[in-house]
Amino acid sequence: MQQTSSSPGLEQLSEPDLTAKLEPELLPKHVAVIMDGNGRWAELQGLPRIAGHREGINSVREMITLCLELGIQYLTIYAFSQENWNRPMQEISALMGLLEHYLSTERASLIEQRIRFRAIGRLDALPESARHWVRTTEQETAHLDKMHLTVALSYGGRAEIVDAVRGIISDAQSGKIRPDHLNESLVQRYLYTHPLPDPDLLIRTSGETRISNFLLWQLAYTELYFTATPWPDFRRREFLLALIEYQRRERRFGRVLSTVSS
Ligand code: IPE
Ligand code: IPE
Ligand code: MG
User: Structurally, how many domains does the chain consist of?
Assistant: First the structure.
């Protein structure tokens, strides 16, 4: 598969040596992750798919810890897509159970680490007990801002845009906004992710090189990083490699930055 991860020499470096390669002023402010490959990771070991989802939670913990250590303020993770509702009932129930377990047990640690938790997506579709923990965790962490952890649940990028358009139409009809004031920053205010900044770096694990309906609007100028490593194996070293690769990119946003002769 196409792999956009770092050059071969880096693979041999120790974690402290990799960390030393990071330049604090070039770190992304917002990292988004499509956490893919849990099922295949488990199946390769003869385990049920849910074992992969469970192990994936340890990768989430490690990533949060490293973001805190490095001062990366925004982490947005894709945990369950709208399309994932088409999976077998048994897997959906197991995933919802894991979500509830994660939120109910991890709340205290999020608060202690001063992390604000948000969920984005069509949350009404979640079972009531999962919704309860999502709401509770959002409320209990609403005042925190050391880091922002956003979890996409029952999330679809197209649905998000449709919901934004619905909100805009409704506010235009009630006179709250004027149609001739419509511009990109107004649309942005109606997205689920408001007021988060757009991601600087998107990581997708497990070999797939697609977006799968994630943050369609917000990824307009995000750097994309694909790795064959399945999510349960994506730990600190892997994240450091992704960050080093990110730092090597030249973000042009359509402009001409380097002096290339034409
Ligand atoms: C990602 O892992 C987690 C979710 C989509 C919930 P997958 O469950 O998609 O694992 P693979 O891609 O089938 O291996
Ligand atoms: C994307 O993974 C969604 C999440 C990681 C939650 P999928 O495994 O559902 O994506 P596809 O089906 O391979 O595109
Ligand atoms: Mg998958």
Answer: 1
